[in-house]
Amino acid sequence: MSATDMQMGFLINGAAFDMGRIDVVSKTGQVELWEIVNKADMDHPFHVHGTQFQVVEHERGGQVSKPAYLAWKDTVNVARGETMRLLLRQDRPGRRMYHCHILEHEQLGMMGVVDVQA
Length: 118
Prior knowledge:
By secondary structure, this protein is mainly β. 4% of the residues lie in helices and 45% in strands. The longest helix has 5 residues. It is globular.
């Protein structure tokens, strides 16, 4: 929140959404480890378009834990102060989004573009 305009900023990697910017470049068929860090004072449900992922690890307050079971997801809640590690694989080339699944947060800039290349 800015002290001058009292508006909250909803950012990913320190930047608000820009349709003209590529934030992540992926290759089709590669398994990737994504680390989602929530430094905010509230939870954010994280969503990725065009693929599914598995949560492999949670970290909060220096404590690392594994999920109770592995499951395919396209959205996962990242609690405040939590770091979540995801394994994902993009199988179709093209540009798509990842974002906070709270509509107001997404609209205020908490979204990015992944370009999946063949």
